[in-house]
Amino acid sequence: MSDGLNMSRRIRRTPYTDSVEAAGVQGFSVVNHMLLPKAYARTVEEDYWHLREHVQLWDVSCQRQVQITGKDATRLVQWMTPRDISGAKIGDCLYVPIIDQNASLLNDPVLLKLADDQYWLSIADSDVLLYAKGLALGAGLDVGVTEPDVSPLAIQGPKAESLLVGLFGEKIRDIAFFKFGWIEFAGTQQLIARSGYSRQGGFEIYLRGAKLGADLWDTIWQAGKVYNIAPGCPNLIERIEGGLLSYGNEMTSENNPLELGMDKFCTLNKSIDCMGHDALKAIATQGVSKQIRGVLFDGGPCPNCAKPWPVYVNDTQVGQITSAIWSPRIERNVGLSLIDKDYWSVGQSVTVHSSDGKLRTGNVSQLPFT
Amino acid sequence: MSDGLNMSRRIRRTPYTDSVEAAGVQGFSVVNHMLLPKAYARTVEEDYWHLREHVQLWDVSCQRQVQITGKDATRLVQWMTPRDISGAKIGDCLYVPIIDQNASLLNDPVLLKLADDQYWLSIADSDVLLYAKGLALGAGLDVGVTEPDVSPLAIQGPKAESLLVGLFGEKIRDIAFFKFGWIEFAGTQQLIARSGYSRQGGFEIYLRGAKLGADLWDTIWQAGKVYNIAPGCPNLIERIEGGLLSYGNEMTSENNPLELGMDKFCTLNKSIDCMGHDALKAIATQGVSKQIRGVLFDGGPCPNCAKPWPVYVNDTQVGQITSAIWSPRIERNVGLSLIDKDYWSVGQSVTVHSSDGKLRTGNVSQLPFT
Predict the structure, then answer these.
(1) Cα dihedral A189, A195, A197, A202 sign
(2) Residues with Cβ within 8 Å of residue A314, at least 6 apart in sequence
(3) CB contact under 8 A, A10 and B247
């Protein structure tokens, strides 16, 4: 096993880590104080093509759940997000920006409605648990805020549905995109959503009960062999091409949801009791000064984007690339950047200053890349 | 540079990262979404002896500051900690457990009082920023809660004082343990505290202004050459021997401060407006059922403790080692464990089940190890 991180209890293992190590993981990243596999034996490019054709098993336990329960649960969730959740139904998954009183982005989780008084926020990399706890304690809300023993396992790729139908039955097909249902596994009821951090289709099983982790991994692994299953992880090429954003990379608390193109996840034409709603409406009225865009750029395969790369139009910096990689399909580099308003039109010529010292010519693109 | 982590903006670089890379860093850990150097060219053991004799420069920017300002600043800080801060003076550093309403530990930062209405919490690895923000928003407190542009650089080891006196003058000697003063650097006033995550003495400069990072590193580096300065990082041998605890390792939100031996940092004989005070007093009245201890154990140098190792007395599990390493000075392994009440007496014989499959005999020890 890689000891590249000085492994310790502080960087939490997951219910699948033993399985992931047995499958040959070659390193980890850290998200929410927990291990996220980052590579197996194959290259990112090989994984990309495999993900588009077959099916992969991803340990995404680091998508920790913040469970909010009780009489004021809906009120607390709504208070944190500018997306109207009053129409949400049990079984819905909603992508919800989490903001503060200034409409600054604190996270971009998926909200799962389990009951009228029970929600899970499946979070990106910041301690929403502490934010929700603080709000609840400060306002004296009648809620419980906890991190339950729930560890998502993603089954991603075009063959995911067939694999899971074989294991859990035809009802898998009835689960619509961003909805969840239930399966029986080892005598337990487990939540399964049609969702995941790729554009290739697939599901996430929100396993309750860490002790079932190895069994669940093995069960899917065995059934997946006929579908050419492989261990995997969020694929940087596929993610960027698909315009899937990463909290901490494309956005931080210095940004608001409208800059990130989350307009359709912000309810602005109706009064809702969200703490940052007025601030967000004011931003909407004024219009944002920069917005997320794709950037296609040349100069051969770019290095790893470890720190932001300035994007210029002539002598003016108009943005910074926060994620980038060579796309073997498009045969150009694909990157993500907030771009200043005067320069964000699709087709705009830009120059990317990558960390290898090259000045790379490129163009602003729509998202997702096509 | 090590790409062991899939470096990206999400795992933030520090004002010193370029310098640290130039100094030959061999890998990083992640704390508070930020890089923490974990090793240079020498072994942990070589670094340990060096730290005890000379002076080291540590990039501990990951000790992020949560700045709390405004009319209700003292009220908010006191609300989060069971340590009475009413007597704190400007210039004081206080180790303060941060708890919730149940007295569960959420962090164990150092509090710096900069003014009657301005504090910094120099945090361990959890987003206290979001907790404090949530409390303030929920309760409608008149405070600002921000993460300022402050990046601590530690100068640790017995020669740290001489080095800094040479650079900044005799007034460095007047700074008492866990107090801070001010130095002038590059035309700016910078905060310097006699503190640090070692028992070898030393200081931490809380650099305001990231752009000064490389200059500060170089200035200390050059002045340190005559003191045999080396780049370093918190040393696992020295930390464990010194009984310095690590949030996420020895303690999590499943623990309370009294279990971690923080009695002297909890004010129980006076009424204070801390949200978890009643819960903590109830725990104190009942007495804790386990408490932090050292464990000295044999069987030759132990492997890296990546996940907790059970500690047994006969057939009863009485604790789990959460950090451990071979001490070349004591010539036994040193570990940290919460130990159940009936077995926590110093000298108690135990067996440690380390991850290499060995059963290692040992004894409960006081902390720090001597």
Answers:
(1) positive
(2) none
(3) yes
A220 in contact with B at a CB cutoff of 8 Å?
Answer: no
Would you say residue B185 has pLDDT above 80? yes
Whether B132 contacts B68, CB under 8 Å: yes
Residues of B in contact with A9 (CB under 8 A): 248-249, 305-308, 322-323
- Determine if the pTM surpasses 0.95: yes
Please tell me whether residue B203 adopts helix, strand or coil conformation. strand
Q: Is A146 on the interface with B (CB under 8 A)?
A: no
Residue B107's DSSP bridge partners are B98
> What is residue B267's predicted lDDT score, i.e. its pLDDT?
98
- Residues of A whose CB is below 8 A from B136: 134, 138
Residues of A in contact with B1 (CB under 8 A): 306
Task: Please give the domain boundaries of chain A with CATH numbers for all domains.
Answer: 17-58+150-240 (3.30.1360.120), 65-146 (3.30.70.1400), 289-370 (2.40.30.110)
Q: What is the mean pLDDT of residues A251-265?
A: 98
- Best probe of the A interface among B16, B20, B33, by most A CBs < 10 A, is B33
From chain B residues 3-42, the ones with a CB under 8 A of any chain A CB are 3-13, 27, 29-30, 33, 38-39
Share of chain B above pLDDT 90, in %: 98
Confidence of residue B6 (pLDDT cuts 50, 70, 90): confident
pLDDT in tens, B23-76: 999 999 999 999 999 999 999 999 999 999 999 999 999 999 999 999 999 999
H helices within B226-294, ranges in order? 236-241, 277-286
Token reading at B254: 């499943």
CA B141 to CA B78: how far, in whole Å? 13
The answer to whether residues B240 and B325 touch, using CB atoms and an 8 Å cutoff, is yes
Place of tokens 């310790």: A8
